[in-house]
Structure formats: C-alpha cells, structure tokens
Amino acid sequence: MFLHRFKCMAKHLPSHPPPPSANRYQPLLDFAKAILGMRLYLFLRCNLLRFIEEYKSKTLRKKNMIDAEKFDLYIEPSYLGVTLNAQKTLGCIHDLPLCDEQAWYVDKKFKDTWERLVLPKMAAYTEVICFSQYVKKEILKTFGFSQEAVHPIYHGLREYRDTHSEAIPSNLGEFILVVGANAKRRNVRGLIDAFKLLPQELQNRFKIVLTGAPNNLDTEDEQYFKQDFIVNLGYVSDALLQTLYAHAHLLWWGSLAEGFGLPMVEAMHASCVVLASDVFCMPEILGDAGFYCNPYNTTDIAKSLESALTDEALRQECIQKGLERVKLFDFKESMRRHIEIVEQMLEVEL
C-alpha cells in the first residue's frame, strides 16, 4: 500500500530538464583543433622542407668550394676522414681493432663500417703517425706502407698533481682501480673472477673501483658488476681521476686489446702500481715498471694480483722505475715530433 502511494506521488512531481552537457561544444572544439593541427602540420612541413633544402644547398656549395680547392696537406686525427683534394695526407692510426687478436670485440655493424669506409681511406694515406711500435707493426702488416712512412710517437703526459683528495668517496678504503670499465676489452670480468680466488683476508681488505660511463655496458655485465666488493663510480672528472690514481693501491690494466694504454702512464706518474697484460703494446709502454699477467688465464691473474697487492718490496721497486720511465712520455717532445713530420711533408726548412 505504501509503495503504491509513493509511486502516485512521484507522478505529480515537477520534471526538470537534464543539465546541459559539459561536452555540448566538444565536437566544435575537436573540429577547430583538427583545423589548427592541419595548419600547424602544413606550416611545419613546409618550413622543414625549406630548411632541409637550404641546408643541402649550403652544404653542397661548401663541398663544391672545398672540392675546387687544392690543399698541400690534409691531417686526419681520427679514422673517419673526409675526401679532400690534397697532395698529401697525414693520418693518425691509434689502433687497428680488426687486426688479429683485437677482432673479437668488434661488432658486425662496426666491422662492416670499418672495412667499407675506414680501411680504404687509411690505405690512401701518404704517411702515418701511430703511438706505439706495436701498432706500427700492425700497420705495416695490414697496409703496404714503407717503414719510413709510419712514425710511432708516444703520447705526451699532461702535468698534474693530486690536489683534490677531499673528492674521494669516503667508502672506498683500499682499492684496485679500473679505468674505462665500460669497454669489454678492459677484461673486468677476468679481474673479478681472479679477485674471488684471492685469500679471504685480501678480499675483505680491498675493493674494486670502476670508472667509465655505464651506457656501453650490456645487461649481463651490468648485473655482474653489482657485487659487494665493487664500487662503480661511473663517469668521473679528470680531477677526480687523477686523485684516484694517487690513492689507488693498484691500477688494473689487464686489457685484451690496446694501441697505447695512457692510463698506465698516468698511474706511473702518480706512483700507482700497475698490473697489466703481457701482450699487445703493454710491455712496450710499461717496461719493467709493473706487474704482468696472462689476461686469458684467471689463475695466473689471481697469482699476479696477489703479488701486486702484497709484495711491498716489488711494489716500491715498480713505483721508482715508473717515476723514471714516465719521462719517456713527454708532451713537448710529442708535439715537437708532430710538427717536425708536418714540416717535412710540406718541405719546410727547419
């Protein structure tokens, strides 16, 4: 009865029209946006095409101007040289990553680029500057240059002093330094595996400190480097790197491929002991001023690592020899030799 009476009352209640919808003008707004979007698209497209055409035109004009010029000498400091109308070309070859043992770390894309674009340009150099006798041998083996056309000049060392001790993170303690750890050829896995074979006392005492921008690490390496005894600093400034050299117990340079290895020289200058591979250019650059290991043998790495960390007499001997050997890598002498070669190629009176 009550429900029936309620329904009857509801019939006589005033009815109100529904409130105007908030989306009443939405179709019109959508249409306006579409028109504006189309105009903006056409504007951007026309201007982008115009910009591209202008850029291509300017680039072509510059190229034509360069092609019309005749140069006495073109110096190429990298490996992707441009094509110039030059009587002579002096190229710098830092290493040859496709030669013999080094070929393993080159991916297919880079290998194709190297063989298609780089090697033909290098083969056309008039003379070459390289940075170790080891690389000179590789160049002579790969190309048809004469002995006299290839000039090995050691890199010169910049002067620096450790003035930033406060910049060292407080959690490092005693550590083994790895520079450029993001490159696979630095053999960081070999170091880590060997470190785990050390006596527990040494494992507790030392950490491994990695430097180098992490963007080149693959997922597998990134996970492998996340261990309790590893501190990954990533990219570090030159000032902090110099400080790390001065305070490291050891520099790991058990690399699987190098053309020079400047960090070994920087470490010697900072009185830091070096453990290096016994292959490639390392014995030439480090000489008798460091420890060596077979970079392909984990047991041998562990044995040399333990000695380099604990044999204080040999460590001090290496430090003293390193301070003397570092004099071979003189910045001014390196610069003088570069200028001398350029002047000879230009037939300038010295």
UniProtKB/TrEMBL annotation:
Residues 174-323 form the Glycosyl transferase family domain. GO terms for biological process: lipopolysaccharide biosynthetic process. Pfam families: Glycos_transf_1. One of its GO terms (molecular function) is glycosyltransferase activity. Keywords: Transferase. InterPro entries: Glyco_trans_1. It comes from the Bacteria. This is Glycosyl transferase, group 1. It comes from Helicobacter suis HS5.
